[in-house]
Specification:
The complex is a heterodimer of chains A (270) and B (287). Chain A has 270 residues and is mainly α. Helix content of chain A is 70%, strand content 3%. Chain A is built from ten helices and two strands. Chain A has a two-stranded antiparallel ribbon. In chain A, helix 3 runs antiparallel to helix 10, helix 4 packs across helix 6 and helix 8 crosses helix 9. Chain B is built from ten helices and ten strands. The model of chain B has no long low-confidence stretch (mean pLDDT 87). Chain B has 287 residues and is an alpha/beta fold. The longest helix of chain B is centred in the middle third of the chain and has 18 residues. In chain B, 38% of the residues lie in helices and 24% in strands. The chains are: A mainly alpha (270), B alpha/beta (287). Chains A and B meet through helix 8 and helix 9 of A and helix 2, helix 3 and helix 4 of B.
Chain lengths: 270, 287
């Protein structure tokens, strides 16, 4: 159950998307997410879904891996949909007890659900096709100008890459602790929210202890391998834009142009 | 001078209570001196708390001695300016493979060390390839470390150290968390490094079976080197090893018990083959 979060989990295969420069994927994902929030009309979402579909096809990553990441946000999704459904003022559709569903509510709720779903799948593609090291390399290079403002770009990138690397390990550990506690009669499933939250405490304490121990070990191992910050470090895989990266940038721009014009056109047409 | 030299090394841990007052001092390493020649395979043996890991951390300048001096390839480990040279000369492999792999892909992890010491990109790739080949993990270079077995992960860790071209590798209980087949894999890789690449190896362990190939063995107890010698010399003193709370390999123990009951056998038998030869030779002698 806990291993279902695919965010930050690299899926190993070879595809065009895998080989793209991480900066392209980062920029592309960012633009894609932004585009989702610009659209007000459905044709825009259709364009986005089409674009997403093509990218998924190109990435050679089984679709079920992306859907797995969705399970983690199901609760958030339901909450958002519920809020939008019941709290948007407008033309009344159905009304019972104190709750009213409005036509506008249905529309925003649907839009919100589609947006969130595509957002998660979109960012899952990025993390599934890019190794975290690659990803942070990309971020590091993109944010290099910030060093002028004394932002510790390299350190932040390193921290993120380590955090990402340890997610699966810590998840596995959580699973183990949970099973150990269940074997000794702990109950994580029943009771109300408060009771369940309380049941998490004996899970979190050993997890934190172990995380600190791992952090200590890792710091030691990194120092033993001569890690001393970004100064004077060379790259095993330096980032250089290739022809395919330029083509990808063009595709993303094309998608933006098409989706915006399509959205506008149909809007005028209606 | 040897590749690693220690003279009168003392290391004290200061124990503190909850308010931070000094409760007492534990001497983890107590006046230890030794010298290791280049290309040697040295095993350091000892039960938990004997100070063997603390001693190992001195060779990589992770710890500095409270008293005494450690030299690595002629460099004093207390010399802050040479710290990175020392760590590059004496690589270290730790116990838990999960906690020392930084990369999400095997080859990226092996490249981490060379990146840190500023090796040009092209040479990093060469080093990664040769290191992975040396430990027999080249086919796994594109894999995620999370999908490897413990023994394979530990071999990746060793490759990661090897890629920095160290003269000496210190392995701090590299097999403690592995299953028997993983343990064999790792020990085979370590022996390969020592014999083929000529890297000085300092192996810290509490598994007796792993030290039979060592050139020299130190047995540590209460921060001191209690015994020193070749594996054969060490294993011929079964009584002494038992006093130090160490297990003797099964064959050696069997030979020892047989001898105690009157079978004439040489001291310090290390492998089943040796014992078999000694026993059959003896039978032939009697008949």
């Amino acid at each position: 159950m806990l291993r279902d979060i695919t965010l930050g989990q690299y899926y190993q295969t070879d595809s065009v998307i895998h080989r793209l420069d991480p900066r392209v994927k980062l920029g592309g994902t960012l633009l894609f997410i932004l585009s989702l929030f610009f659209f007000q009309r459905y044709p825009g979402y259709l364009a986005a879904a089409l674009f997403l579909g093509i990218v998924i096809k190109l990435s050679h990553v089984p679709f079920r891996f992306m859907v797995r990441g969705m399970k983690a946000i199901v609760f958030l999704l339901i909450l958002t949909v519920a809020f939008n459904l019941f709290l948007t003022p407008g033309k009344e559709l159905v009304s019972f007890w104190k709750l009213t569903i409005t036509w506008e509510g249905v529309k925003t709720a649907a839009a919100m659900a589609v947006r969130l779903t595509m957002l998660i799948i979109g960012s899952s593609i990025m993390t599934l096709t890019t190794t975290p090291n690659n990803l942070t390399d990309g971020m590091e290079k993109m944010m290099r100008p910030l060093r002028v403002f004394k932002v510790p770009v390299h350190e932040v990138a390193m921290m993120m890459s380590i955090a990402l690397r340890f997610i699966p390990i810590l998840l596995e550990e959580t699973d183990k602790i949970m099973k150990a506690q269940i074997a000794r009669g702990a109950d994580f499933e029943s009771g109300n929210l408060l009771k369940r939250a309380k049941a998490m405490v004996p899970l979190l304490v050993p997890l934190f202890v172990s995380a600190f121990r791992r952090a200590n070990d890792l710091a030691l191992a990194m120092e033993a391998r001569c890690y001393r910050g970004g100064e004077g470090r060379t790259k095993m895989k330096p980032l250089v834009y290739q022809k395919r990266d330029r083509i990808a940038y063009l595709c993303i721009l094309l998608y933006l142009a098409v989706s915006i014009t399509v959205g506008r056109l149909v809007w005028m047409w209606i | 001078m040897g590749i690693v030299k220690a003279s009168d090394v003392v290391y004290e841990y200061i124990r503190r209570d909850e308010e931070g007052n000094v409760e007492g001092i534990t001497t983890a390493v107590d006046k230890v001196s030794f010298e290791i020649a280049p290309g040697e395979f040295v095993a350091i043996l000892g039960h938990n708390g004997s100070g063997k890991s603390t001693l190992a951390k001195h060779i990589n300048a992770i710890l500095n001695p409270t008293e005494g001096t450690v030299w690595v390839d002629g460099m004093d480990t207390g010399d802050e300016d040479r710290l990175w040279d020392i760590r590059q000369t004496a690589g270290m492999v730790f116990q838990n493979p999960d906690n020392q792999i930084i990369g999400q892909v095997v080859e990226e992890d092996v490249g981490f060390g060379p990146e840190n010491i500023g090796i040009p990109t092209k040479q990093i790739w060469e080093r990664v390839e040769e290191s992975l080949r040396a430990v027999g993990m080249y086919e796994y270079r594109k894999h995620s470390p999370n999908r490897l077995s413990g023994g394979q992960k530990q071999r990746v860790s060793i490759a990661g150290v090897l890629a920095m071209h160290p003269k000496c590798i210190v392995l701090d209980e590299p097999t403690a968390m592995l299953d028997p087949s993983g343990r064999r894999e790792v020990i085979r890789a370590v022996r390969g490094l020592n014999q083929v690449e000529g890297v000085t190896v300092i192996l810290i362990t509490h598994y007796m079976e792993e030290i039979i190939h060592a050139d020299r063995v130190f047995v540590m107890d209460q921060g001191k080197i209690a015994m020193e010698g070749t594996p054969r010399e060490i294993f011929s003193q079964v009584e002494r090893l038992k006093e130090l709370r160490l297990d003797v390999p099964q064959v050696t123990l069997l030979a020892y018990e047989l001898k105690k009951r009157g079978v004439s056998l040489p001291d310090g038998i290390l492998t089943p083959q040796e014992l078999a030869d000694a026993l059959t030779g003896q039978k032939r002698g009697q008949s």
